[in-house]
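A favour, since you know our structure tokens better than I do. It will help me judge whether the discrete encoding reads sensibly. The space below this message is yours for that.
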Amino acid sequence: MLEGYGVARGLCLVGILGILGAGTGCGQLKKLRQENQQLNETISGLQQENAELSSKASRYESELSRLENTRRDLEAKLKGTGATVRIKNGTVSVLLPGAVLFDSGQTTLRPQSKATLKKIAGILKTSAAGEIVRIEGHTDNDPVVRHKDKYKSNWELSAARAAAVLHYMVEECGVSPARVYIAGFGQYQPMTDNKSKTGKAKNRRVEFVIVPKGGG
């Protein structure tokens, strides 16, 4: 009799443990399913992000290729003028050394510079038709001395030089005044250091920056 009772009790305990085990197994399965769903959502998000990055990279490469082709085209057309063409902050820029345009400390265009400016104007009216062009003046870091009464600093000097170029392009070369504007940066956007005469000469320049649509 006692033996039968013990067997029955053992069977009951096994049953209870089985029920508890089954409940624990269901909980773990539910948890695994939730983790699996979260993992799938994470993977889906990463795949979408990767697709977006790939698309951006493709657009970037396409734009870079377009800019480089434009740079080469302009450089070929301006060969022999003293101008160089570079890609600058996502734009194409035509660069003229200050020595080509002005005598030291002056803002009056040198006569020999006008043929080059006419050529650049012709290109702006054809190859860059419809684009806005920013004419930038840049100087070295030497302070203004001889014409301090006219130009308080290199900001004023660089802006006056850019304005002289703009007036010639508009008044003598037929560039639309609605397409051009000036900026004077003084010595604050150098291409190289100002420790040598060569460096200073490189920093004294005027740039024609073809501004992207929507840019400024």
About this structure: The mean pLDDT is 87. Residues 2-77 form the longest helix (76 residues). Residues 1-65 form one domain. Strands lie at 84-88, 91-97, 132-138, 180-184, 205-211.
